[in-house]
From TrEMBL:
It comes from the Bacteria. Belongs to the Fur family. This is Ferric uptake regulation protein. It is found in: Cytoplasm. Keywords: Cytoplasm, DNA-binding, Metal-binding, Repressor, Transcription, Transcription regulation, Zinc.
Amino acid sequence: MDTKQKELNIATIKDVLRQYLMDKGFRNTPERYTILEEIYNMEHHFNVDDLYLLMMQKKYHVSKATIYNTIEIFLDAGLIRKHQFGEKTLSTSSYEKSYFDKQHDHLVIYKEDSDKIIEEIIEFCDPRIQGIKDSIEKAFGVSIDTHSLYFYGHKKSEN
């Protein structure tokens, strides 16, 4: 993504956050926008500890509690998505930006000889999943707004 598009995207999500805060009667603090911008500059999944360390490295003065509270606001506003990949960390949830991203699914690959240490997370989109979603909607008379699908495994040995 080019710099100009990234700047437009950041401006858009800040507008979404501004409107959300106003609608909910929440305070409009600069820390929330700084945290949001840092998240939208990331190219990978993150957890609260990752985000907190990044903010400290960049000399931002935010507490971990502020980050936790802000994450909840972003989730409710639809700006980020929460995942539970089964990783063994102090903060077991992972997050990713979601406002511009289409629905996708995840393949979680664990390190050899481990069922909790993640080696890699691969995002994928398979059109057959959309067909399954459409079938479920028709069969049950519902409208599915979102879904999550995770596959977990290990890389095959090259013997």
